[in-house]
Predict the 3D structure of the following.
Amino acid sequence: MPTLTQRILQSECDGGILGKRFTSYYIMVFVMHLALKRTTLLVLSGLLIGMYLLPVTAQDAGGTTMPTPVAQATPTPIPRPQPATVLTQDKATLEVYFTSLAQGSTGLLHVTGTGIAGAKSSFLDDLVDFFPMPNDGFYGLVSASMEQTARNYTLDVLVWYEDGTRETISTKVDVTVGAFIKQVVTLPPDKSYLADPEIERNEFAKLESIMSATTPQRMWDSSGFQLPIPGGELTSPFGAFRNYNGIMDTRHTGWDIRATLGQPVMASAAGKVVYTGLMDIRGNIVVVDHGMGVFSTYNHFSQTHVTRGQTVNAGQVLGVVGNTGRTTGPHFHWEIVVNGNFVDPVQFIQMWKPG
């Protein structure tokens, strides 16, 4: 199985959804040229530009923002949804809370039954333990990486019982193509040396090592997850295909949030600080373990206010916004990692999770 480092660095910067939208746009305009008058064509062409180009436009910190949700200092509780699929085996019931998984997204599973001692899922070569909730069975998270091939996969959930028996519930899951854009980033001269695949490769390897040991218990509480800067504007989106200085292609592994120097940044959820320090690309960084294979990273700080081993609560200040690392200006970069995969942080916090 490719490591996290290999999956990020080996991804190809193909046309993706942006290329498809350009192609569709030109075909439709050509057809209308044959059938419509010029005045009508101009109006409809303008509409098509809005439909096909604007939804995939985004800029780095300081540029035009994409429409995004606005976080509150105290997040509004997310109502528990109905499961998309319910499967019943001999003694256990599996609830699947998603219809498919887009590349770079996370899904929730729930197992209930009498006398269950534990459960784990097998999906995309990942074995993931479920965590118990009082009087509410066991829950597990599954994720698909940004580079996961879009096709149908088998999901197996193994359930074992207090009497020593076991059973497996299987279903099929579609991994679908993510809506990722392309970006060109020009680094300032004093940071141009950071457009170096070797520097990025080493940093991914370090992050992989930091997040290799997972805490089996869930550490987040009923307050759930929130944006680290309440009300902050999300700018550069997760998963973007990025080119730096015309010489290096990579992927954007989180969301950027517009912020000013010295602005406080809060923990997305309760957890334990497992790393603070300075990295080449992420600058001053804090990594928080939330348990059950979920980590969050907070990057480009000018100052950090927590130490390794410290327990933090949701909303606790971790540090203040800076301009350290591979940046084009002061802003905040935020990442969520689930089961070793960088996933879309916004999709993750909008997803209902037990707490």
